[in-house]
Amino acid sequence: MAKKQFKAESKRLLGLMINSIYTHKEIFLRELISNASDAIDKLCYKALTDESVGMSRGDFFIKVTADEAERTITVEDNGIGMTAEELEKNLGVIASSGSLRFKQEMEADKKEESGIDIIGQFGVGFYSAFMIADRVRVESRAFGSDEANAWESDGEDGYTITPCDKQDVGTKITIFVKKDTEDENYSEFLDTYRLRGLVKKYSDYVRYPIRMNITKSRSVETDEVDENGKKKTKWESYTEEETVNSMVPIWQRSKAEASDEDCINFYKEKYYDTEDPVKLIRINAEGAVSYKALLFIPKKAPFNYYSRDYEAGLQLYANGVMIMDMCKDLLPECFRFVRGVVDSQDLSLNISREMLQHDRQLKTIETNIEKRVKSELKKLMDDEPETYAEFYKSFGLQLKYGLLADYGVRRELLKDLLMFYSSKEGKPVSLADYVKTMPEEQKFIYYACGDSITKLDKLPQAEPIRDKGYGILYLTEDADEFVMNMLGEYEGKQLKSVNSEDLGIESGEDKEETEKKEAENKELLDFVKDSLGGAVAAVKLSHKLKSSPVCLGTQGAISLEMERYFSTVPGSGEKVKAERVLELNGAHPVFAALSAAYGADKEKAKKYAKLLYFQSLLLSGASIDDPAEYAELVSELMV
């Protein structure tokens, strides 16, 4: 038969597809196996209504063979097969998909209950073989036909269709592998174990057995004997046909077929974790979008979790064929620690099947998974608080980052999952638990920011709150204060920093007395401010201080903790500075000493002012820019 030419548009598409659509050459085997599975699906479906097929589901198979000497790879199936006309229609016109037409006919007949799912919808997957092939030959005999035909092409100069001698129904595709070049090692695909690895990676859960001839070794006796009169043994190689795919994935099995222990073992093997996950989540969703998922919430973070090297995402399958190894679009960033797989027959795939089209189905799955993960974490927090606390040590920071992302769009989703150390409980608690233990008269949720719980427990400005018996949330991570600002309130209770001007517990008389004394000492306070040479924006008397003579506060939106955080961010440097306020205790003996020195020896009063400022820095957890000056001041005043 004369050689036929691809249509002009098909020829252009073929070149584009080979060089652009597929990013990994190894994809060719996934595509050919998917096509073989589709062909078997069609005959399997026909067998439901046509007794002449004479085959049941257990009779079907796919076989993959590599021949290094001949540089060929064959993928063979005993599916529906193709006539000469179908070979020309399906392979002579690129993007003409017989699988898509079959699926459309099934939907029109409303026979989806057969359980047959077709993944090959575009009609281009077959041509991925040309990424590694000089030539491809397809021998096929259609069910019900006495004739077999062979389609053959080099992918460039057209194709031929000729009769061939094929005894069995089905299709055999032979890939004549290109020779190696300086840039490409095509021979790797001729290695049986490399092909086996690709089957396990992409097609492990195709529903039909994928068979390969595997070379093995065994010990056999020889006629020789050793000094003890025993026959010697030697190792010999032999070839045995094996089914190399699992066929039925664990997430497709019922709980009776796959126990929680089985699923946990699967998790440990797949993700190389020695610890059991804190939560196992099974999802079997039916409706507008049907999918199954098997998800795991780890107990501890991998060593590289908070680095750029960590890859987040769920493994995505479509009808048992892996589409993406790490699909980030199925999980919100706040839950990037979740591991697992999602398998759906309803996703819209793009032409290469290497990427998803971002459509309503994908968003629906993401939203459902997001809600389910939140629900399971909240249940874990309520039912197993100790286990949740251990999980939170690893991933609490991720939840905080997630709340801050996108201007707090997931604030409502995440606020119930947060935990902070409580001065009252002596351990991390949720905001809900903090509110439950608040005295009836307490109006606010109080918090303090610093670099350690020990330092925060001694903050002088928090003393009035502690004296009231109110709990304080101690925040020691960089993200904490931003989280509090983003939340604003919880269950109607405003979140308030211990550095706030009004703590809501001071009496009117105390405030009036402080304001009166501040007015009386305005000249002294201005002197202290000037003595510090611009280090502080203001100096005032505090109505919050009790046993301590001094503390350091701020005015404006930027706190000391925010300043400290932004100082570590490259490029921010001097751009973000807090307006510091030195607060003095007007009832403390130290203030009386300062006042006396101001009246008698202003140089000494200036040294007192600097010393008090240095003390306020130390109490707040901030560093002193000139420790030597501080040490010298202490020495001078001691003599």
The level of helicity is 25-40%
CATH topology name of the largest domain, in short, is Heat Shock Protein 90
CATH superfamily of the largest domain: Histidine kinase-like ATPase, C-terminal domain
Report the oligomer: single chain
Q: Tell me how many strands there are.
A: 22
Q: Please describe the biggest sheet, giving its number of strands, its sense, and whether it closes into a barrel.
A: 8 strands, mixed
Output the structural class. Answer: alpha+beta
Radius of gyration: 37 Å
Query: In CATH terms, what is the architecture of the largest domain?
Result: 2-Layer Sandwich
What does this structure look like?
This protein is of the alpha+beta class and 639 residues long. It has four domains: 8-215, Heat Shock Protein 90, CATH 3.30.565.10; 250-391, Ribosomal Protein S5, domain 2 (2-Layer Sandwich), CATH 3.30.230; 418-505, Rossmann fold; 508-639, Up-down Bundle (Four Helix Bundle (Hemerythrin (Met), subunit A)), CATH 1.20.120. The protein contains 19 helices and 22 strands. An eight-stranded mixed beta sheet has the order 5-4-3-6-2-1-7-8, with helices on one face. It has a six-stranded mixed beta sheet with strand order 15-14-17-16-19-18. A hairpin with a 4-residue loop joins β1 (62-67) and β2 (72-77). The longest helix is centred in the middle third of the chain and has 24 residues, at 360-383.
